[in-house]
Amino acid sequence: MNHAILIIDDDTMVATSLELLLKRAGYRAFSVNYPDDALPAVEEHKPALVLLDMNFSIDTSGRDGMSLLRKLLAAYPRLPIIQMTGWATVQLAVEGMKAGARDFIAKPWDNRELLNAVSIQIDKLPPGFGHGGAAAGATEGSEKAGEVDTFSGIIGQSEALNKVLDQARRVAATQASVLITGESGTGKELVAEAIHAASRRAGKPFVAVNLGGVPAGLFESELFGHKAGAFTDARADRKGRFEMAEGGTLFLDEIGDLAPAAQVKLLRVLQERQYERLGDSRVRKTDVRILSATSRDLQSMVTAGTFREDLLYRINLIHLHLPPLRERPEDIPLLAEHFLISARKRYERPKLKLGPDAIKWLRRQPFAGNIRQLQNLMERTAILAPATVIQVEDLDRNTRPQPTNESATPSGMTLEEMEIKMIKAALGRSGGEIAATARELGLTRAALYRRLEKYGIGT
Ligand SMILES: Nc1ncnc2c1ncn2[C@@H]1O[C@H](COP(=O)(O)OP(=O)(O)OP(=O)(O)O)[C@@H](O)[C@H]1O
Hints:
Blueprint: E1 4-8, H1 12-24, E2 28-32, H2 35-45, E3 49-53, H3 63-75, E4 81-86, H4 90-99, E5 103-107, H5 111-123, H6 134-139, H7 159-172, E6 178-181, H8 188-198, E7 206-210, H9 219-224, E8 225-226, E9 238-239, H10 241-244, E10 249-253, H11 260-272, E11 274-276, E12 283-285, E13 289-294, H12 298-304, H13 309-315, E14 318-321, H14 332-346, E15 353-354, H15 356-363, H16 370-384, E16 389-390, H17 392-399, H18 415-430, H19 434-441, H20 445-455
Parallel strand pairs: 1-2, 1-3, 3-4, 4-5, 6-13, 6-14, 7-10, 10-13, 15-16
Antiparallel strand pairs: 8-9, 11-12
Helix pairs in contact: 3-4, 7-8, 14-16, 16-17, 18-19, 19-20
Bound molecules: adenosine-5'-triphosphate.
Adenosine-5'-triphosphate is lined by residues 154-156, 182, 184-190, 253, 293, 295, 335, 371-372, 375, 442-444, 447.
């Protein structure tokens, strides 16, 4: 049976063309032009989905759309609503998502994108929803049973982290570009991976590229690929990151480090959704979802003229900010425990545990390097602690700079040397297998690649 879709838009032209589009796609579509008619129309048609225009012309601020959204959700909490917004009201769209809307489409819309967004929501409906009536379906049931929470590997219980993760869960199912900000080591890449894994692109690749590490001259080749002979070192054809991520997600890490010329090239591809390999005139279409991350303040960079506003606009439909660890000390004991458990296995010290004072001490540390620093500290301590109960002194010794050599550890090695040693050892154990090595070290694949590149370690 065809699902019913209700369109709420005061522009009759828009409403009619949406009705036509949806009918052609096999839905039963209805529309109303006045906010006051919305609730009675839901009663009457029992839609499986509502397309709601947020900008009624009576009040272009979008307040009307917002209050109607809230009213609809108050009456039918489980009714899927897709908002439609103009570019100028992205902020409003984000507010709407927080209020419970499932997705949003920017006007003017792209037919394929709109139908895609509609079918994603329809596919998620519980059986009978929108047939037996929105009101019945709207109040029944909770989330689908048996669903894997792809965010469960992100440890922490602080309100600050949970708030971000809730937003991330909500936007995961949409196609929206997400910008993840936060200091180094706060888990931006981890969140990006979880968003990808929770999205309908999960079966397709997640490709990360560290834009800070790509030399300006290699930017196009790295992202779009090249044809053999395109430049001196281009000996063979090469796929770019966009091509590798086709159908999946492209994670643009350190996007704030992108040079102005590269910003223009990236923007063009994001706008046109097509690109050419260097030295190849064939135009390739791209279907990737863009997630970006940076520890920089892009808004200030826009003001200073070092980051393009139009690019920020493209990548920043949704903004998630990961708070530094010092602002969520309640997460520290859980994280420390989590890292200790994996280090215990790795270094075959199953009895190792944290003493109560050590936990208190950890909670007070500033952790400028955030979770990565805590992870390294637990790792080093697991190797070096003399007894099974880790004491404050064991942790402190591994944190404090040594008097003889600023960055030397008690074993005489610098942290970098130690990291290199650990990476090489793990690579040896896994026979050079990247995924297994990354897992063993508690790193993401991209983070491991970054380190291999940084330390010049070949696999
Ligand atoms: N909440 C968390 N639970 C478990 N592990 C975490 C959490 N947050 C971060 N980590 C771990 O900390 C390390 C750093 O995280 P990640 O690489 O995602 O940070 P980042 O913000 O992307 O850092 P950078 O900006 O330096 O690239 C990783 O090994 C990651 O697995």
